Amino acid sequence: MDDNDDQYRWESGYERTWEVIQEDESGSIRATVNAINQKNRRKELAQLPNVRLGMMRHLYVVLDLSDAMKDQDLRPNRLFCSIELLKEFIFLYFDSNPISQIGIIITRKKRVEKISELAGNPRSHVALLEQLKYQECEGEASIQNALDMGLQTLKHMPKYSSREMLFVLGCLTTCDPGNILQTIKTCKENEIRCSVISLSAEVRIFRKLCIDTKGLFHVITDSTHFQELLQIHSRPLPALDKFESSLVRMGFPKYRTYTTSNANISSTTTSSTKHEKASMCMCHLEQRGGTNGFSIGGYFCPTCESKYCELPTECSVCHLTLVSAPHLARSYHFLFPIEQFIEASMDKSESNKCFGCQHIFDEQKHKNIFQCTNCKNFFCFECDLFIHGTIFTCPGCIRYGQLK
Amino acid sequence: MSSSVKHLVVIIDLNPYYWSDKIASSTTLNFKQYLNIIIQFCNAYIAFDINHRLIIIGCSNNETHFLYPDPTNESIIIPTVTKTNMFEQLFVVDRVVENNLKQFIEDLSPMNTSSGSMITMALTQALCYINRLIRETLAGEKNSFRILIIQTTNDTSKQYMNFMNAVFTSEKINVPIDGCILNNDSSLLQQACDLTSGIYLRVPDPNGLLQYLLWLYLTDKEVRKMLALPTKVAVDYRPACFCHHKLIDTGYVCSVCLSIYCDNASTCSTCRSAFDITNTSNGANDSSKRQAR
Q: Is residue A288 located within the same domain as residue A343?
């Protein structure tokens, strides 16, 4: 291998992996396996402090639609499985990166095709992905063409956003019109981070692409692993060095019904008085013939008064990004992460209950309990995971924030 | 008959501030009546359906306490045949809540009562509790969960982030939050109810609290479709800027930490990153300019 330190498993030193596993009195290894699992899950959730994250992301997902995607090693086949997991991924992505955008590209028959432009509405992307399920997988994939297509759009994205491409590839080859190394170089120059999730095996050129552009390269072992990998990609990655910071102008529209008199701006949505006029929202304007989007209520752009039925979105008239406060609040937990709890022994705890779920600690069941370093409260393993993985708020520490 | 168990977590605000002299004149309800009403509501909830389960969490200015269920206290109380021939389960609930309340109120610290209650702490604990119940659910069972917050104090802006985190969690695990407030309107609670599709109500007359509780909060989502619910008021989702704490329509957001400012600033006060002011504009215009150059 050329420039990377981690070698293939068979090239590295001889490891006695089984020595970690110990049997208990009854000969069961469940306890150790559980302990290893617990450790891994805690490690996964540990966040590095003081790392600047790329909070605004522009991401293209490149989905392989080549022959290789027909394989049935993932059930029912690679394509179906990938699409199902990608749908989940899109919702996760917008949950962690509320003001980011995503686009979808597919590659087959040595060509590429843009399924959706960079946009911020998860539902439309998911609907488009759903349609892909019934398309034929054929021919070979072309990484270079996909990179070129992504480059065209991404290089014009503002410097303060994180530009990324995520490849989900089943193929082991790429059929390119020119020198792919040149394209990789251009990606590197434009600071586009390319990551690959390979469904089959490691391919040198994929790995090189990821290393050169500072992306992540993974090969899946099974569908659960695939899901976990996508979860990693849904969280914002540490920002690259040349990252600029900037103030971005945004609009925070208020939901209201359109009224002829401006004085009655905050009228309720359900009461239908004479003043209310139904109008078409800008997001459904393109889909002609439907009655979707024809309503009296909506979000109105604060600068140009165009109407939208959903947030977040970009105003198609004045290009102002429209969001609401909870969208921004959703990602604040990345900025103020809570510290890891430390493992403690049962006898140290004053109370015999978990501070979160009020479960009474049991000598046998709860081998490890966890203590928050700030508020000194004790938690069971489940609550520890839940607090660090989902709530992002330690129940005990709220009191201290309040009294300050 | 489906055997799905319905859990309701009631979070009651027991901050003594609302019942103190400063505010008491504006309301005709006293603390004892308030507690009575809540116990009546809880009894009604348990008696309503055999599959109903109840969890009561009390919270004051700096403490929270699980009032019910309390496994250690419950075993002490032996349901005896009472004078009134009361339903055994209700008898146990009443005694346990009564005992716990007494203890909780005795332990109250009079410090900082005006600064709001530990609603957020109770909410996160409720979510932890629900999370454990979800994990213990056997395959095939379909249990539903719901949280009801009865608040008497004003919001505290210090809890905003923690509160929103809890609300997003609740949204993720599909637990509606219902809010019932006795005092002034609470924008935090309003947002929580709107995001999790629960019902928010500011009780216009505290004397009718029991009626309001029975009307709106006894039933779950399915039954609510058939009820005449209070009209939904559009929730104001505009944020306050970090610099002047004013509500704004358009603002500038730091690309690194997402802090909101109402005007151009040279550095971000939250993450201390310096901005290149010449570059400031909104995304799409920015890119078109760069292309033109």
A: no
**CB pairs under 8 A, 24+ apart, for B161-164?**
B161/A329, B161/A332, B161/A333, B161/A336, B161/A393, B162/A393, B162/A398, B162/A401, B162/B120, B162/B124, B163/B119, B163/B120, B163/B123, B163/B188, B163/B192, B164/A326, B164/A329, B164/A330, B164/A332, B164/B191
Would you tell me how many other CB atoms lie within 10 Å of the CB of residue A25?
A: 5
Q: In the structure, what pLDDT confidence band is assigned to residue B281 with cuts at 50, 70 and 90? A: very low
- Measured between CA atoms, how close is B233 to chain A, in angstroms? 5
Order of strands across the sheet with B64-68? B64-68, B52-59, B6-13, B144-151, B177-181, B200-202
In a domain, A24, yes or no: no
Q: Do A325 and B128 touch (CB under 8 A)?
A: no
Residue listed under structure tokens 């699409």? A83
CATH number at residue A365: 3.30.40.10
- pTM for the model: 0.82
What is the tens place of the pLDDT at every residue in B254-275? 877 788 888 877 788 777 777 7
What pLDDT is attached to residue B76? 65
Is B234's CB within 8 Å of A255's CB? Answer: yes
In this structure, the answer to whether residues A254 and A229 fall within a common structural domain is no
Q: Looking at residues A267-284, what average pLDDT do you find?
A: 60
Q: Is residue A11 part of a domain?
A: no
**Residues in chain B closer than 8 A to A305 (CB atoms):** none
Where do the domains of chain B lie? 4-224, 238-293
Domain count, chain A: 3
Q: What is the pLDDT of residue B244?
A: 81
Beta strands in A85-125 (DSSP E): 101-108, 111-119
What pLDDT is recorded for position B26? 59
Among A391, A397, A404, most B C-beta atoms within 10 A, so best to mutate, is A391
Work out the pLDDT band at B81, boundaries 50, 70, 90: low
Share of chain A above pLDDT 70, in %: 83
Co-location of A78 and A158 in the same domain: yes
- What is the reported pLDDT for A209? 94
Q: How far apart are CA A296 and CA B142, in angstroms?
A: 37
Strands A313-314 and A321-322 come out as antiparallel
- How high does pLDDT run on average in chain B? 81
CATH topology of domain B4-224: Rossmann fold (3.40.50)
Distance CA B153, CA B159 (A): 13
Residue A142 sits in the same domain as residue A204: yes
| A8 token code pair | 């293939």
Reading the block at residue B89, the tokens are 């389960």
Which residues form the domain of A120? 52-234
